[in-house]
Design goal:
The chain has 135 residues and is mainly alpha-helical. It folds into 2 domains: 1-53; 54-134. The chain has 5 helices and no strands. It is a multi-pass membrane protein.
């Protein structure tokens, strides 16, 4: 939802007049689509059918790359906001997009941390460590 807000707010401005917002739009739309795709895969439990793919590692790499690119998108978006803009509504939307880009960046960073823990198996507890796959 936060990623959707970023690109929706930017898309509602005259972003095409500023090259910096093209990068922000690319990052936000690209990772929004991939996040929705991963969400559908996990919602439908399709990752169980493709057991050859190391899903925890893939998810950790995805979140780390999304975090790194959202850092650049956030900095670009925040630096391109011009408070002396002649169009006040563009300023408000771009400032809000910068705020939500920061929130998305933090969210992907936290997801990277938890994905790393899941990949390393550090998130298990006593109940999950006692389960075996004996038939």
């Amino acid at each position: 939802v936060l990623g959707l807000l970023v690109w929706a707010l930017i898309a509602d401005t005259t972003y095409y007049l500023h090259a910096a917002y093209g990068w922000v739009m690319f990052v936000s739309i690209f990772f929004w689509i991939l996040t929705v795709l991963f969400f559908v895969i996990y919602l439908l439990q399709l990752q169980l059918k493709f057991y050859i793919i190391p899903w925890p590692l893939l998810l950790m790499i995805f979140n780390a790359v999304a975090t790194a690119l959202y850092v650049t998108a956030f900095v670009t978006c925040a630096a391109a906001v011009q408070p002396t803009s002649w169009r006040q509504w563009d300023y408000n939307r771009r400032a809000a997009a910068s705020f939500f880009a920061c929130l998305v960046m933090i969210t992907y960073g936290v997801s990277t941390f938890f994905s790393f823990r899941a990949w390393k198996g550090l998130g298990s507890n006593a109940a999950t460590s006692q389960v075996t796959d004996r038939a």
